[in-house]
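# step 3/5: fold
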Amino acid sequence: MIRFENITAAYTPHQIAVEGVSFAVEGPQIVGLIGPNGAGKSTLIKAALGLIPAQGKVTVDGHPLKDQQREIAYVEQKSAIDYSFPITVAEVVSLGLYSRMRPWQSLKKARPKVTAALEAVAMQDFAKRQIGELSGGQFQRVLLARTLVQDARLIFLDEPFVGIDAASEQIIMTLLRELRDDGRQIFIVHHDLGKVREYFDSVLILNKELLAFGETAAVFTPENLKKAYGDAILIGGDLK
């Protein structure tokens, strides 16, 4: 079980990003984090992972998350990554192996694992390409391949479907479901409400504070969405 307890983070002393967020996730599942722009979804993940100063704590089976870095894979938003950096697709994927390697180990023995990860996301033919040559969807699949070689139990993805093609989105979702079925817990910051029921086992609705959390069928309701987004979220009685 992963437990988030009273997570609070602020941009400035007078500008709270997320406040007092507490919830727990038990068993393998895909959890969607949704809410309006500025709701603190990305901030919550960064705070939980110790990437920004924050209050509160996160534990996995009673142990601090910060002591289990090898069990964590995190993919930030593509907009935060420098596409011009001179690195190949295979080299990006291999970066996921460094935390599990000893100082004297060579990456040569890891090549089959890198190749297998690229095959899983249908990017094996791009192994020697520079990342700057890829489309948004192709690059997101490469980042997921890097996550695969990490073999992490906990996977955090920040807006992985923004600016990608439909084929890449389906490849990614298929793989994420397989990872869940293999025992992983996956957290996804997401904005497309039309895909929530299809994609997520559980949903966390956030607007600086936790508004609702639970199984998607129970939580993804007009009432809870109205709390987060206001009246504009309901058009013709349907969720938009």
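# step 4/5: annotate
DSSP finds eight helices and twelve strands in the chain.
# step 5/5: archive (pending)
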